[in-house]
Amino acid sequence: MSRILLAVGMRAKLAVATMAIVGLALVMGTGIVSLALYSALTSSLKTQATAQLQAIVDLVGREGLEGLNGETGAEVGAVVQLIDAQGRLLYGSRPGAPLTTLHPAVGQVLVEGITPLPTLKDIPGPVTAATGVLIDDHPVTAVVALPQVSQREAVTTVLKLLLLGTPVIVLASGIIAWWLISRSLRPVEGIRRTVESISSRHLGARVPVSGTDDEIGRLALTMNEMLDRLERGRRQQNQFVADASHELRSPLASLHTALDMGAGDPSGQRWRSLAPVMATETHRMERLVDDLLTLARGDAGTVPATRWRDVDLDDLVVEEARRPRSPGRVEVTFDVRPARVRGDRLQLVRVLRNLADNAVRAATSRVVLSVAPEGTQAVVRVEDDGPGIPADQRERVFERFVRLDEARTRDGGGSGLGLAIVRELVALHGGSVAVDRSGLGGARFTIRLPLHRQAPPEEDSIGQTVPAAPDRPGQDVLDQDTGGLSTSR
To answer: Which residues span the membrane (predicted)?
Structure first.
């Protein structure tokens, strides 16, 4: 049976289940109705028998046995008897033997002949009500018996009708269930056909929406939302591949040109001048490939997290601010307070470096790095005094291969992957990154990471910038013109 059910569809399964439930309910209902009807009829018959018995007792009490010679008031089919203490029949409305052996006391009413369940095979006996009376100071048993044939016929008729109607009702319920289920599953079949026709190259199709706020309608909306995400992911993937190919083409073209130029010089003198160019382009391509690999690992959820340990963010900020950079007119200052997180030190260094390099490229003259604990979070801020980022572009800057206007990419910038990597690595550490307007006039990137354990206080760092020169504690500056440390005046 189970194999058959597995081979058929959901409609057949639900229709069969509906028929089984309806059939079981009807059978149980038939039994309950029959029992209830039988109980009601026998109770009514008992009431009638006791009422007629009381009428006979009243009649005998007034007129004696002579009163029974006329109309007794008993119903048609009822049998009235008077039986003495020795079991002899004193009076009978019909010829026959005594109907009962009951000998109730005077005033006591006894009833027999009622069974708790109806009997359909044998003809049931009458319902007999008996009570004791005194006639001429002699105890006599008055009896009234009512037949149960009509009650049995009524119960039998109702039972037959219900049993005969059960298959019809069960079949009708199965047909109705099949139709309703087919109608309900029609949108699901449409969804299935649509999804079946969708391929990885054509994700623009959408499943039909019924327009009703039910499970099927919500399923269709959910499927369309999923298809939207898949299509968006596919477009981003294609764009990612196209942008990566474009970014790799430039250094490869430069290397190809350098190789052609070097090969065209039989003396080999050009190689000396081409070597720095080739090294620069190779390093650029290496960084791009490394960035692409980091993002690919993030998409696949395989960014390694096995090197996690306690990391003092204030130390990383100081190291990043003091990192030598190419000569320029931008000074980098920092303001740190102890803040310790749990994470991968190399990944956190990369986050700070990407933000700092981005700020230095955009800044006019100043970049400020800061870190401080705020509640249960360590907050790192990287600010510059450059042109800033428009409000409508602040979320877009974290997308891959996104560059803003030339004002924020003075030297041509990077590949457009730096901020995307920042968001990926910060999310890996359970944090968030956002950008708004800095008090310096430019952009301010804010990173929030969960504090792991508060770093021990240091007299020269808590509540102030780490001093680099004795004449003015609290301000350490990296002079881009000289590439060394100097004190900001």
So the answer is: 12-38, 161-181
Query: 154, 179, 204 — which closes off a domain?
Result: 154
Q: Are residues 474 and 349 in the same domain?
A: yes
Strands (E) in 222-306, as ranges, are none
Residues 349 and 410 in one domain: yes
Tokens 């009622």 belong to which residue?
Answer: 114
* Residue 173, domain member (yes or no): no
Name the helix (H) or strand (E) containing 127. strand 127-135
Asked, for residue 209, whether it belongs to a domain, the answer is no
Q: Is 312 helix (H, G, I), strand (E, B) or coil?
A: strand
Residues 255 and 330 in one domain: no
72: domain CATH number is 3.30.450
pLDDT at 467 over 80: no
- Domain extent for 324: 308-486
- Are residue 342 and residue 467 in the same domain, yes or no? yes
Tell me, yes or no, whether 377 and 282 share the same domain. no
Residue type (1 letter), 433: V
Of 454 and 32, which is predicted with more confidence? 32
CB count within 10 Å of CB 325 equals: 14
Question: What are the CB-based long-range contacts (under 8 Å, 24+) for 84-89?
Answer: 84/138, 84/139, 84/140, 84/141, 85/138, 85/139, 85/140
Q: What is the pLDDT of residue 475?
A: 36
pLDDT tier at 414, thresholds 50, 70, 90: low
Q: End-to-end CA distance of the chain, in Å?
A: 91
> b/e per residue, 96-128, with b = 16+ CB within 10 A?
eebbbebebeeeebbbebbeeebeeeeebebbb
Q: Which residues are bridge partners to 485 per DSSP?
A: 478
Cβ contact 128:145 at 8 Å: yes
pLDDT tens digits, 104-129: 888 888 888 777 766 666 667 788 88
Nearest to 136 by CA among 68, 60, 71, 55: 60
CB 215 within 8 A of CB 187: no
Q: 219 and 273: one domain?
A: yes
User: Are residues 146 and 92 part of one domain?
Assistant: yes
Bridge partner list, 341: 311, 451
Q: Which residues contact 143 (CB under 8 A, 6 or more apart)?
A: 53, 79, 80, 81, 82, 83, 98, 99, 100, 102, 128, 129, 130
347 shares a domain with 259:
no
